[in-house]
Amino acid sequence: MTTAERDLRGWAGPAAGLSFIAGVGGAAARASDPYPRPWATVPEVQRYFTNNRAAARTSVAGQLVSAAALSVFSTMVFRTSAHDPARVRAGRAAGALAAASLALSATCSLLLTTAHGRDSDTARRLHRLGFALGGPIHTVSFGVLVGTLEIEISGPDAPERVLRTASLVAAATGALSPLYYVARPFGVLIVASRLTGLGAIAATGVRLATSERSSHAAPARQERRPDDG
């Protein structure tokens, strides 16, 4: 793996989190209406996406960039792994589903800002589908991806223990996130899994990129050392 590939693999982790947060934060700052919840009425959904097109598209852009970065991260992070092949395949598959579901959810939101959102039935279906894709479906698959990061995190030091704990928390809350369909308070699980997971992959990506750069720089320094004899 080249230095550029190692850097791309590592920095894709924080890029996924930063772009998602920037998109959501930018949309919240620009919107004049609150984002419609899954149970919102069709007029509420249409009002938001009609009156706040720029805000909604800001969030869409952030989600699409995040999905692309997540795809790169999940594809490359286990490329040279020597760990359990089954867990590696699970991580890659979960990463692909997480990236795809987030991108499709963003696409649903984008369509709502166009003429497709003016039809009541279409608006209702797009909004519900977008939430299902970007909420429970994305969160469950994202939780599996983050849970598999434990196989790439080794060592007894405090940073490694924190990352392992964060990955397990993201996996557990992600697996339970579909309970939101049972009771609305369980929506906190979606938020907890997403934020904890984004933090975990960001820290893991930086750790992998910097540690590999250091490990490749050390032999180079040793080669330049003059011979003792």
Q: Which secondary structure elements does this structure contain, and how are they paired or packed?
A:
Blueprint: H1 3-30, H2 42-51, H3 53-76, H4 85-112, H5 120-148, H6 158-176, H7 187-223
Helix pairs in contact: 1-3, 1-7, 2-5, 3-4, 4-5, 5-6, 5-7, 6-7
Backbone structural class:
mainly alpha
Number of helices: 7
Measured by DSSP, the beta-strand proportion falls in under 5%
The overall average pLDDT, rounded, is 83
Shape: globular
Number of strands: 0
* Share of helix, binned: over 70%
Largest sheet: none
Number of domains: 1
Distance between the termini: 34 Å
SSE string, helix = H, strand = E? Answer: HHHHHHH
Mind telling me the C-alpha Rg?
20 Å
Low-pLDDT ranges? 215-225
Brief description of this entry?
The protein has 229 residues and is an all-alpha fold. 76% of the residues lie in helices and 0% in strands.
Features:
globular; single chain; mainly alpha; 229 residues
In words, what does this structure look like?
The chain has one domain. The longest helix has 37 residues, at 187-223. The relative contact order is 0.14. The protein is mainly alpha-helical and 229 residues long. The chain is globular and about 50 Å long. It has helices spanning 3-30, 42-51, 53-76, 85-112, 120-148, 158-176, 187-223.
